Amino acid sequence: MTSSPRSERGQASVELLGALPFVLLVGALLWQLTLAGESAWLCANAARAGARAEVVGRSATAAARSALPRSLANGLRVDRAKGGAVRVRMRLPLLLRSWKSPWSISATAGLGGDG
Fold it and tell me: Which tens digit of pLDDT belongs to each residue from 78-90?
């Protein structure tokens, strides 16, 4: 029994529709990993900015907040750690910077000092 070309018409469209949710899920996961990496890098940068400000007698919180995009600065926590270091904690974005996940990320930076 041979199949005619007419009976397989539209097969590629059906296969694409079946694979599309998987492709979108993989894309969303890759994007989330990218956002998490960028957030970790930005959090470490904010901690360094806060530590530099702390060393010269300025506000570590204001410096850390100014080192972040406005969407990531919401919910930012800046604490002083041992040895004059500054610890910055922020919530990870979820697919978009304005959507926050329940997970947070933190970074600590210090420039010597109280030793």
Answer: 999 888 899 999 9
Q: Angle at CA 73, nearest 5°, toward 67 and 75?
A: 145
Q: What kind and span of H or E run contains 34?
A: helix 11-55
For residues 94-110, b (16+ Cβ closer than 10 Å) or e, as one string? eeeeeebeeeebebbbb
Nearest of 34, 25, 28, 24 to residue 92 by alpha carbon: 34
Distance in angstroms (rounded) separating the CA atoms of residues 72 and 81: 21
SS3 83: helix
- Over residues 26-36, the pLDDT tens digits come to 999 999 999 99
Q: What is the pTM of this model?
A: 0.77
Q: Is residue 83 part of a domain?
A: yes
Distance CA 27, CA 88 (A): 29
Three-state DSSP at 72 gives helix
On whether residue 75 sits in a domain, the answer given is yes
- The answer to whether position 8 is within a domain reads no
Give dist(CA 90, CA 69) in Å, integer. 12
